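Deviations from the work plan: none for this task. Representative record:
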Amino acid sequence: MKLICSKENLMEGINIVQKAVSTKTTLPILEGILLEADDRLKMTGNDLEIGIECYVDADVKRKGSIVLNSKMLGDIVRRLPDAEVLLDVKENNSVVIECESSLFEIRGIASEGFPALPSLEKEDGIKISQKLIKDIIKQTIFAVSVDENRPILTGSLFEYKNGHLSIVSIDGYRLALRTVASEFAVQDRNIVIPGKTLNEISKIIQPVDEELTIYTTNNQILFDMGNCIMVSRLLEGEYLNYMGIIPKEHETKINVNTKELLACFERASLVITNDERRYPVKLDIKDDMMIITSNTEIGNAREEIRLEMDGKELEISFNPRYFIEALRVIENEAVSISFTSNIGPCIIRPLQGDAFVYLVLPIRK
Amino acid sequence: MKLICSKENLMEGINIVQKAVSTKTTLPILEGILLEADDRLKMTGNDLEIGIECYVDADVKRKGSIVLNSKMLGDIVRRLPDAEVLLDVKENNSVVIECESSLFEIRGIASEGFPALPSLEKEDGIKISQKLIKDIIKQTIFAVSVDENRPILTGSLFEYKNGHLSIVSIDGYRLALRTVASEFAVQDRNIVIPGKTLNEISKIIQPVDEELTIYTTNNQILFDMGNCIMVSRLLEGEYLNYMGIIPKEHETKINVNTKELLACFERASLVITNDERRYPVKLDIKDDMMIITSNTEIGNAREEIRLEMDGKELEISFNPRYFIEALRVIENEAVSISFTSNIGPCIIRPLQGDAFVYLVLPIRK
């Protein structure tokens, strides 16, 4: 393999595929990036859960392939001058990297042992703007469970039904649901994407209007961004019937400014250190006002916030973190919060429409 | 104690005195900030090595004092709205912090047990611009030794002689010397300031032309910044005779672009991981050119750089980190480097003048 490629293009490709390179492996080849030169340069990272493939423009002088340690390659290319870079594979898998008056020779690994990415049929894909998918991942991923005892909840449900895409995360104490209308008629489907995969794809995609296409099989998902694709396994099993969890009725409902409420919860939780279950914040709703109080060994906090209320007065206690994480990702200026009772779930919704639903269970005292 | 103070002023004071608050102590009072209200609010942090005192404008309603946990106070004030903050000490050292509709009550500690800062006579002070002192600390501190076996070298020598202030750090393998001319006639002195103190003072001072004044005694130093002072102990003992270490003669001398040389060293050291002594970089100087090579188990790097040379051809090896750390803090576009021999020290100087001297010992092979 011998090729010339701009430092900029090479660096961009490395930065993307590095996200799928394993950092905790005893197999040196999995710490590497597979470089394959044909008409362009194809770069691949694969940690056996997630694989990323990226095409980069290059002037290929001799076709071939090699695996180079991802960290070493990234460190070297990052520090090269902004100029053309020559990559030349010599005997014994030694690789020369040359750029202006800099010359490196580092050891590569034969590409034969590099695990191939699974191939998926590119049909019946869901097209969605990159900015939108990035946003909806951010708005739901924090409620993904980290408890390996219920593996299915360590992913998010992607449900495509009647032209609507719903994304749901549930960790047993709360639920995050985000729904978007899609313009494309594709087959209905239900898949569960690992939280790690969603984290990595949201780092790769840019907040731009350009679309990416999502293809799925029973056990694989492929995100197609044109020059780059990412492939991941899916979680197997039945996801919870989330619609059954969301209550239809309420006894108390408030409309409140999102940022103000967030600031109150953040301050009220300052006197709570580690043992959050033992020290919840208490909400006291009456007379178009909410008093938020917390009381720990360190001290007390008390916050007052004006709001519009409808229904009964209510006293209820929560883990403030669950509210804080939801309120931080809501872009709407104001939200509506419905309470069923002081022991039942509470629901955060937009004032109009059904773009999102956050459910939080209270702490019973 | 009862006072009203703007959130902004309070936060600024906390951020400064927090730098002297101990984080590794079993005495809760040393994790606190002493607040004393008289005509203004005085805040003090003291970890028994460094003490910082800061005055903040406040509307004092009732004089008094209290100690509050530094982290807790900082976390609370940071999240308050930009408005007036009321601090009110109640019975049992409980402290109310109130700002708009937020109210905190946290436990304070009686101020009697807080260690007082040592008092120094403010006379015969050295006045120096804050930007300049910040720069010269940055330009010498990296060569301070971390080896506790020679405690005197864990500080920097500040030598004031004949209107010149010289700052010297030596760690046994290299030396950093920075000299500035001062306009004020004060008494000559020789003090050794702990590296930790220099680190903290350089975080507090701003890169502005405004002057600070340095007062010293045999075993204490005081930095006076007007509204804030910082006091620290000094290191005791005789510092090395640094002038005796710097060679006067050379066999080879080069003039070279600072940034280009830095980039070459940075790239050449990429193939060197941990064991730097085993894998030095080799410099090969001849024909107005320097070839820098490194050769490790990971691979080889080779860099070429054009320069002006004078004297003999030379082959010499160095720990590249010592060059990199010096070249990074040199602001001059080009430097002059003199070599005595391939086993003697090498000296980096400005092309003109004597504002700095960096000495690096080679690695003998």
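Chain B touches chain A at residues 72, 75-76, 79-81, 94, 101-107, 263-264, 266-267, 270-271, 298-305 (CB under 8 Å).
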